[in-house]
Predict the 3D structure of the following.
Amino acid sequence: MSTFDPDPPAPAVGGNPADQLITIKRFLADRQPAGATGNLTGLLYDIALAGKLISSKTRRAGLTDMLGRSGVTNVQGEEQKSLDVYADQVIAGLLGKSGKVCALVSEEQPEVTVFEDGGPYVVTCDPLDGSSNIDANVSIGTIFGVFRRHDPDNGPTTEDWLRPGSDLVAAGYLLYSTSTMLVYSAGDGVHAFTLDPEAGEFLLTWSDLEFPEDPSYYSFNLAASAHWERGVERFVDWANRDDTPTMSQRYIGSAVSDFHRNLLHGGIFAYPGTDEEPAGKLRLLYEGAPLAYLAEQAGGRGSDSRESLLDLVPTDIHQRTPVFVGARGLVERLEAFVAGPDGD
């Protein structure tokens, strides 16, 4: 398997440059198992299309009416930004008409959206993660997870979406920054694509991504450290010792951005619980579980500090959870500090 190379070699001179380019459509088709219906492949391509539309709006947000608040508060008690609403509408509109999705769980909707005559999949998503950063032009993203419906011959039920992340058949995110990237896994490794705005297509950038062995960053909001459980504080103290791996503290405040940087360069992202919010802020079903799924596929781990995020069964679509996700060794070290005072 290949891992991220920060300084990849230049392509060979000569030949047809187009032969060296792999579009996401071609990549998905080539990875499709023999005998597959193509529904999951088509669903992932629909999500890529949604990413193109959202990316176009984010790049022009300051020139349109997309900056600022929408005047609406979502079920989380958070005031929606205009781009939040747009991203939610784009995703729901595309998936609802695709014939591949029977239900959509969105951060921006209080209830599950059920599509008539839907297909075999349930999608969970945070349409625009990190939207509080929009007005400051900080990178933001879309997180998604895909479950296979239990019984495609009957209507979808709560058992189709209130289920552990270990049931996911695919997960990923779109990152809107200096370039737009789509990172996904369907259980066969983690693959990353960059949107070429001139061609209007996502092109393969890295396949089979894995967390580097030597971590570079830990992404914790240290301003809240006084309100964390003691084990999390002990981990941060350990991370700053001279005899531990040399890591820098980097925290953007957008889960997609922090996770993506740590996936490429090695590290751990955390959103712990606090005294006032012991369950933390991130949602299990459409943030914690999909990121944990990706981490596992890249050789990492996702945890609530005590057990795998993929083993947790939500009782509500908007259930919150502490999130620690990244390189396996770092997440397991944190769990050890939470379990015992010496990290044993």
Observations:
- Residues 8-17, 63-71 have pLDDT under 50 and may be disordered.
- The radius of gyration is 20 Å.
- The longest helix spans residues 39-59.
- The chain has seven helices and 15 strands.
